[in-house]
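Why do we care about 3D structure at all? Because function follows from shape, and shape follows, mostly, from sequence. That is the central idea of this module. The next example makes it concrete: a single protein chain, its amino acid sequence, and then its structure expressed as tokens.
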Amino acid sequence: MKGTPFVYQGQELGMTNVSFKDIDQFRDLDSKHFYQEKLAAGWPVKKIMTSLRAKSRDNARTPMQWSGDQHAGFSATQPWIEVNPNYREINVAAQQANPAATLNFYRQLIHLRLTEPILLNGRYQLVDTHDHQLYVYTRETPTGGYLVVTNLSDQPATFTVPNHLKLTKLVLSNYPNQALNTTIKLAPWAADLYRYERTNS
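And the structure:
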């Protein structure tokens, strides 16, 4: 899309929210205040902790997961906040050589953004799908461009390509076996980038 893209620490690995079990594991003052406030209001501890696991800012503050080594390879000593326990599976070292890994998907996206002028300067055009699951748009020139089709839900979805767009190539997808059809079937959370040419229809 237009604007300056940014990647927040860990997004390029698919790092997940941390599931702290105790309020003492949190460092965020807002989270600690929320805990005390809801505890005083009679909320059960389990409900408070569930809420914090979903929305605490500490989810975005756990150390970067560089490897499966101690402290996720982030430091030689205990960091200021605990490392997410899933660091042994989700880390840079584990994803480096895997072409299908989230890290390498981000690398492909960044490379495309830097090397394809249409993705940088092409006109943004929202495609109205009348569907709350789909977010679809083009970055285009008068003769063609790129079609971005995303399913922003946990349910399968279908998108019919408008008649005036002729798909010529699937450039990138998180489900790479997608075929070039006028009806695109999308798995949950699927994202496809197609090259297209404009037709006269």
